[in-house]
Amino acid sequence: MSYSFDPNRMYRMPTHFGPAYGPRQSPDGVSFNGKISHKTTTVSVSFLSNATQLRKLLPPGFSLHGDPIVNIFASYMKEIQWLAGRGYNVLGVTLNAEFSGKKEKVHGPFLTVLWENLADPIITGREELGFSKIYCELPEIRISSDFAAISASWLGFNFLNLEVSSLKSITPPYPMGPDESEPDGLLHYKYIPRTGQWGSPDVAYPVISPASNPNRKILEQFVGNGHFKWNVARWEDMPTQYTIINTLADLEIKEFTSGSLKRTIGDHDLSQINQKILE
Amino acid sequence: MSYSFDPNRMYRMPTHFGPAYGPRQSPDGVSFNGKISHKTTTVSVSFLSNATQLRKLLPPGFSLHGDPIVNIFASYMKEIQWLAGRGYNVLGVTLNAEFSGKKEKVHGPFLTVLWENLADPIITGREELGFSKIYCELPEIRISSDFAAISASWLGFNFLNLEVSSLKSITPPYPMGPDESEPDGLLHYKYIPRTGQWGSPDVAYPVISPASNPNRKILEQFVGNGHFKWNVARWEDMPTQYTIINTLADLEIKEFTSGSLKRTIGDHDLSQINQKILE
Amino acid sequence: MSYSFDPNRMYRMPTHFGPAYGPRQSPDGVSFNGKISHKTTTVSVSFLSNATQLRKLLPPGFSLHGDPIVNIFASYMKEIQWLAGRGYNVLGVTLNAEFSGKKEKVHGPFLTVLWENLADPIITGREELGFSKIYCELPEIRISSDFAAISASWLGFNFLNLEVSSLKSITPPYPMGPDESEPDGLLHYKYIPRTGQWGSPDVAYPVISPASNPNRKILEQFVGNGHFKWNVARWEDMPTQYTIINTLADLEIKEFTSGSLKRTIGDHDLSQINQKILE
Amino acid sequence: MSYSFDPNRMYRMPTHFGPAYGPRQSPDGVSFNGKISHKTTTVSVSFLSNATQLRKLLPPGFSLHGDPIVNIFASYMKEIQWLAGRGYNVLGVTLNAEFSGKKEKVHGPFLTVLWENLADPIITGREELGFSKIYCELPEIRISSDFAAISASWLGFNFLNLEVSSLKSITPPYPMGPDESEPDGLLHYKYIPRTGQWGSPDVAYPVISPASNPNRKILEQFVGNGHFKWNVARWEDMPTQYTIINTLADLEIKEFTSGSLKRTIGDHDLSQINQKILE
What we know:
Four copies of one chain form a homotetramer. Chain A is mainly beta.
């Protein structure tokens, strides 16, 4: 009498209204095309940090790979097809890491946290992909003359300001940024707690977003001087996220290694998604 | 070299920054008190619907219980302690159902969907509790003279308007509303997809929020005439949620059975949470 | 002992903190350049309406000019220099009108109302320029495949949805749209009530934004089929604006005359502003 | 052929759609009742400052009155009848001042600036009343245990945080707060620039909101320790308001003189509005 699940379709809670549409599943008759979806403006700053501090952020099975470089990037996306032409914004922090499992050994940027300003991709990203996505406000990037600036807040508490100034346009061929040098892919650790058995997980496994972005085309790229400031938070300021902000604010900055602004068009299309569990 | 999990603490993604604070876990030195947290204004409308339609919304193991009554409620919460005094709003739809498992047989309102206007409780609620929480905009309830009205939108698409008019104050003892008559508890179905194996779940089990709300005190209660209108959505209007809206908009309304407005103070405190998997 | 006004600077309330910066006055050392500021995406739909209805919207001294065509346009602006690289969005409705005064006779689009989603330009636009600007929410335009769609809401009440579909790219030279065919300029009626003498104005005069937009460069242009729907509002839905919505919703649509999507860069620069009172 | 103005009704731009409804003019059949509209929660902090600094904020005809005390208050209003049951929030800064004109000599708190988080009352307040209202984001006040905290931002730039801690409930009769001790009324300076003649005003006169609030009833009151921090802004951070923030941030704090939290119901009703120009 109740409904049943179709093993050929993807579901998310609530499962009671049928298959869930999103970036990896469209209704019949709607197709997503990675060549035109979507338009992205990305600002990115990297710095050399302290290996001892970074290691403490790595889950079981992971270790640092190469220099202890941290990358902070923010992307402002428009005209996303799976959102019927809407957009949303993200802010992420990565470290260069490797995972060594029973069967696989891979390396690439490890996504410690990804803030997004829209709940729908947060839900799909966490539950389907294992991305460590959480929410914040990300007002549109400000670009004027030769600077670009972003800010991030949680319910009005402004926890990060980041700017790239003295921007200079560069000509193709464009160099790879630290957020794109993904030898094997983008690394994650998926974790879902078990209901009622609070210390135990329902899900706890490493995940990779295999490298490949054949549809992304760079339209414009600029390099400049990066600068950012985390505003240390109390529990009162960000009761669900202050430990994250304060850990990131505490990372040693030995040297800024890059700052850039980039406009791109295109991204993965639906058929290219091969996110997988690492073993 | 990497971090390890403390089995006595609760975690959510990102797990790399230590235990996750939220409604069920506070930092040392912070205590939550259900007697003063939080203040809630709830508007609620119930109607007799069509059993055949409602059964199609029930997951495996569930069946209808009693009359096919649907309850739509919206709660506007303030001064929530786990959010350090902030608030958020919710909009839910329940059916009276029962679950019959190998070991347990329980009945109570089945929460088909719960919209919330803040991502942080959506994440904790989905992953820790198995609530079918999704996002929408819920502007503050409007109360003036003898009517109360709410609206719900997703990125500007106004999918529900609900009003209770000709409100009359009632005096204690207050009757139980359909959203409170929880013989055994509030029922859910937790589902998390398995990464890369898209038709398969990592998690798929029924869950109960056992009834008990000793701290909730009703400050004021009114009854009145309920009325609501779902605005049918296309994929273009709500690409991730239109199937939900349209299914709910299609439910037959045989008769309105209640409409109310209520102001309460207090809720569960931390020690009372005994959400559990049903077997 | 109190401050005094510098007759060479512009002021807005509060005047107590010195001259007011904005689109027409920058701090020393900051210059605005109309060639790069700002980037705009505009969707526009025109229709032939009923002259008798339109005349009722014209203030003293104004009459219709040419066909009774109404244009509804929405512009989404980014990288505005006077906002230090931020953007905002507008939604306007114009009629073709002429003003005949004691000294001047001019014609052009008459701006009956301009919604904006940011209070700062609303304030400067009303008080400095006499634009009939009011507030609404204007979520980012949705563009996907061959359609563009916008919506407008006031505190969650979605009062307008407008789409242009079957978009086809056109090649230069680009035709003038109805929102640009400004023979003499854009026409307005500035009105400020007198405090305490409620039926009397402090200010009541016609204003023109003289035509000239040498810095605007069209980057892309598309034509398509326009369609829109005003949602009739009660006082309860939009207590400050329902009369506006309902008057516009009531306008007869005899024939759609154009629909377009356009991306431009550049606009007026500071030195070109010659908004003036019509006599 | 065009419309004409009815001298017995109030208008605001756009005037083309008939009389403008708002706090001082309701549609036929709708009445506002100050006894139940509206519910307000106010946090307030006062401090003794530097008379020389404060005098520089006074417009022509004004001087300081009594001690150079500055009051910062924020009010969170709900169930406002003229908004059909909606609410909005305000943040203001007052000084004790007197105005000495040709005919009148009055004293009371001078409202240097009033931020509001909704454009509709900003427009009516500036143009009808001469209040120096501007826009900012004012997320709901946070109240938990014995503290209350507010923050204010402009497009994500968090310019003020204010808290009152160690709150203690006081019992009636309630003392007057500095925001209520209005011997003659609340003082303002209304200023509207003249279009095209940028250094000249269309309107420039002092205004008073005569004291009288017979409908306001205090429900609860607490006193505590006030604390606040203005975050100094660059033009890039708040291009239209940074001079205001920085002037207020620069005010000397000699001593905190009061901190309070208060819940009230009721306010002026429509018939009591006697805002007037001072001569």
